[in-house]
Amino acid sequence: MRKKAVIFDMDGLMFDTETLGYQAQGELAEEMDLPIAFDFDYYLKQVGRSDKDVMPELASDFGDAELAERFLKRMKERQTGIASEKGLPIKKGLYDLLAFLKEEGVICVVASSSRRKEVSFYLELADISQYFRYQVCGDEVSFAKPNPEIFLSAWKPLGIPKEDCLILEDSLNGIRAAYDAGIEVIMVPDLIVPDDEAKAKTIAILPDLHAVMDWLKEK
């Protein structure tokens, strides 16, 4: 394969944490008697975004910034609690893809909108931390996806041309960020159905990470 490095998103790409987040939000919305309806469409608006990016909207919707901050903190705790208790849903093909990339000598990096605390927790829970040279997390950059900062921050230390790098994403915000960073991106859809923009800004849309491995083997 011709790529020398692969940058992985995390939520919705490596793990089905989006479903865990939706479950956690629904439970807490009821427990905390929140003033808005947390339906699936509302949750989708948060996918691929950092806590810092989402917080102003939650504060506006709740009419209470302190309540929004408390809710988001408890949601993350509930989400990781569900993963610890019931197991972390691993996306199809993740382990095979990581093993293949290691054998090929390809550098793997994580660029996630989640905070480092959550990124470290999930990577360790899945026992895959050793596959990644480093991680760039949502609480370590100034601007959230779709701003390209997080991907540029993940790419720059590699010291390789952008054309030797590949990004794997599941969200439209992530695809926009990758595209604006000038790095090729493959979409592996999770909750977001690929639209015309996604098709135009990706080099491939594949059903799972095993298909990504097969695609790379052909290059």
UniProtKB/TrEMBL annotation:
Transmembrane segments: none annotated. InterPro entries: Beta-PGM-like, HAD-like_sf, HAD-SF_hydro_IA, HAD_2, HAD_sf, PGP-like_dom2. The keyword Cytoplasm does not apply. One of its GO terms (molecular function) is catalytic activity. Its cofactor is Mg(2+). Coiled coil: none annotated. SUPFAM superfamilies: HAD-like. This is HAD family phosphatase. It comes from Trichococcus flocculiformis. The lineage of its organism: Bacteria, Bacillati, Bacillota, Bacilli, Lactobacillales.
